[in-house]
Design brief:
3 helices, single chain, Immunoglobulin-like, 8 strands, four-stranded mixed sheet, disordered N terminus, 142 residues, alpha/beta
Length: 142
């Protein structure tokens, strides 16, 4: 027989697993917004969701941007041309870039739940077209 706490924990775990979504972001040489893009460049997720980065074109990777991750989330950097799955475990915004195309504006922003680190992430300075691109992405955060 189940103990009440054990049953409640099991139900919560099942509910979390069922509710989790997978979001897909393509790494492209050319997309709807121009050259060298993540598409979509903004994803609104929930803690527990996964974001799958798909190298639709060669020559791209995914790297977290320093100071643009929620507290406690480890930085990451993938090899080129490899699919990457990020589990968004903490609430906040996650800033990512394609290392060789960062200055060309190949960046993305993921919002997981409440944007608890928004001020810190928005204060990060970027080079080239990434600066203007992030400005537009931060306008989508709710």
């Amino acid at each position: 027989m189940f103990k009440p706490l054990t049953l409640a924990t099991a139900v919560a775990m099942l509910a979390t697993g069922v509710a989790a979504e997978t979001h897909e972001i393509k790494m492209l040489n050319r997309g709807e917004e121009g050259a060298m893009v993540f598409e979509p460049a903004f994803v609104k997720a929930a803690p527990g969701d996964t974001v799958r980065f798909v190298p639709a074109d060669k020559g791209h990777n995914v790297q977290s941007i320093e100071a643009m991750l929620p507290d406690g989330v480890e930085s990451f950097k993938t090899k080129y041309n490899e699919e990457f799955v990020l589990t968004v475990e903490a609430e906040g915004v996650y800033g990512v870039k394609c290392t060789p195309h960062y200055g060309m504006g190949m960046v993305a922003l993921i919002q997981a739940g409440e944007p608890v680190n928004l001020e810190q992430a928005n204060a990060v300075e970027h080079r080239g077209k990434a600066s203007a691109k992030f400005k537009g992405l931060f306008e989508k955060v709710q």
